[in-house]
Specification:
Strand order of the largest sheet of chain B: 3-4-5-6
CATH architecture of the largest domain in chain A: Orthogonal Bundle
Largest interface: A-B, 47 and 39 residues
Radius of gyration of chain A: 18 Å
Shape of chain B: rod-shaped
Largest sheet of chain B: 4 strands, antiparallel
Oligomer: heterodimer
Mean pLDDT of chain A: 75
Number of strands of chain B: 6
Number of strands of chain A: 2
Helix content of chain A: 55-70%
Order of helices and strands of chain B: HHHHHEEHEEEE
Chain lengths: 195, 209
Amino acid sequence: MQRYQRKVYSVAFGLLRNQEDALDVVQESFIKVHRYLANFEGNSSFYTWLYRIVTNLCIDHMRKNKRYKAFEFDDSLRHDEKADSASDADIRPLSGLGDPAQMLHRREILDAFQNGLACLSDKHRAVIVMRELEGFSYEEMAKAMGCSKGTIMSRLFHARRNMQRHLTERLGYMPSEVVSDSDGESLGAVEAVMP
Amino acid sequence: MRELDHERVTKLHAYFDGEVSAAERQQIEAEVGADEQASSVLADLKLLRGVAVASFDAEAARVPEARFEQIWDEIDRTLERDRRLQRAAETNVSVWSRVVAFVRPRWVPAVALAGVAAALTLYVTQDGGPDERSSGAAVVASKEAQALTDVSAAPAAVELPIQNEAEIERIEFGGRSGRIDQIHGKNGKTTTVIWFTEDDPTENSERSL
């Protein structure tokens, strides 16, 4: 079970954006898994079942906690107005940020993603986490969030576009060199050529 | 090159997420090969997903292993507490079940008996309190409910009361018959004694309520 702990934490942190809240959900999730393991029917993979538990606990947590009032699904999205007024033309392709293979190892890009996630509304963040990290289907996401499949498609579209805009705005340059530390992990660009 | 409208981009997202039918998938794949914009959209989606997964992994790696160990310790404690509570609950249920199973078949006769005793007590109370006591298994149904200790000797030892027309002399109860005696004590008080004869006529025993 321990091998899932960091993945579960990732999902919880992605949704809640608070380390201690996320760790509380991790603990509660594994307790629930132990308690209800006998009820697991095996219709889905254990991984999917576990993610459903985590997601539901996070949604419950957000609904109970005043800090997450925005999670009530009223479709008033922080980024939507900007997104709707902007044309697709001002969305620059992510390929402009550099070599895709290297991007996944660049700390400033990974941090920029987390930063962008924090700027998204709770609903947009939730669809990004559920789809990109948990691999939920549209149907599963709609069920978890209590809305229609069409709403999920719309939210996912806007969430991805907002995230793409955030990344290209923040990292809108082509780093010319990426330096790795002794463990082979990239530390980020040391030289950048501004466009 | 075909312009990418909102509907088409949304369809590309659905294709990327595996949410289109087989026919739609084939159609999109045929179009994407010749459409640079569509290819770019799909490449961005793939890259965004890769960045998302890598970013979440990096974020999770920041939590020290010791913090997770604390969580597992707490999980173990909670589950152990669950097990203890479950064991305790099972024990309690078992004892209670046994008690209920023992008492249930006796409820009706016990309640009936109590009702009769209450009625007799009420009757005796209205007729005057007992005073005389004797030894044995006899029990006096009176306001004070005093016991008589010597069952066999009691009827012979006491002086039978002077009967009048209003007095009840015999009683039937639960297939048994009984005799009602009024015992007048030396201090002037009267005690009512009900004698029940056992059903088995071969046994010459009597007891009172």
